[in-house]
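Appendix B. Raw example, untouched.
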Amino acid sequence: MLSNAFRRAPFTAMLAVVSAFASLAAAPSALAQKSYDPGASDTAIRIGNLMPYSGPASAYAIVGRIEQAYFRMINDQGGINGRRIEFISYDDAYSPAKAVEQTRKLVESDEVLLMFSPMGTPSNAAIQKYLNTRRVPQLFAASGATRFGDPNGFPWTMGWQPPYQVEGRVYAKYILANKPEPRIAVLYQNDDLGRDLLKGLKDGLGDLTSLIVAEESYEVAEPSANNHIARLKASGADVFVSITTPKFAAQSIRKAAEMAWRPLYLQALVSASIGAVLRPAGLDNAQGLVSAAYNKDAADPQWIGDPGMKRFHAFLDAYAPDVNRGDNSVVYAYGAAQCLVEVLRRAGDNLTRANVMREAANLDGYAPDTLLPGITISTAPNDFHPIEQLRMMRFEGDHWRLFGPVIDGDLRN
């Protein structure tokens, strides 16, 4: 007869095999374990935002409204990997001090996973160090300041729109190619926005910076740009570069027309909106203005059959039917929100702040619905400027007309 030990051996071996299979079955589950930082859970992703719903830059408030509406659409479609977006947007009135106060509230009280699309150079500059110290993503900051694309100095901050220095270089090239012996006047906002774009303009002029015959800066608290325009006209300039936010851009266009000053007029793209700037300034006064673009113009009939813009208009029909589709800020907000959703989808169940930044820094050729053909979003661990391409455009009639090729302005080159 077999001993009890031998009788138990087959059963013991069977247990070992079953145990081995159980371990293998458990392995994928372990590998797929969910990871969360504050602001993320099985059911929700909490996102913070700052917007100037009041104050001198309130024309940009539509960006927050459209982003809110876009996330509402995503939630209605089932969320991101089954998680709802909780979008918490506070008014900072375009005030750096208020921006810091509201950001602390979002991070320390609301416990957001990340800050998305905080508006404006002054506010983003004010909160940048705090967010990097806390290791909270400051993702797709709504500013073209070069400082928001510095992965070595600020690894938790990434901009979205083309850097102002790239835009300034493009304008310099255009002026030199199209205006013999130009006399250039510049009005710029006295912050990183204005100084950055002015630096790009001067870099683009190279040894010809003496062509700038007059510079005027203004503060956002000033009531009017009129006196600046009068002094710049008196300089005898025949080229005018307006590095202004919407309120001052509209005032400048209107005042130049009133004074019958008709230089080659280049308007920074942050204020190239037909709805928020050109209509208030008067479309007749805006004829012939030159600017640059990376987004499609929702009011331009050439995009009627474009699949991306069809989705854009369907979204507005359902979630924001009363907005002015000629406002470039509406297109901007849709594209930025769509890009964030793509990043969060790619992050999957690893919703840590570090992984969100990792995914944001590995977008290669991604194209939201609203970007012009040939322009894509490309990032890398050493490149935190998602969009570095532009096309020139001129205002004619009631809309902007694109001309010339896509211009690559990669700051690493």
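End of appendix B.
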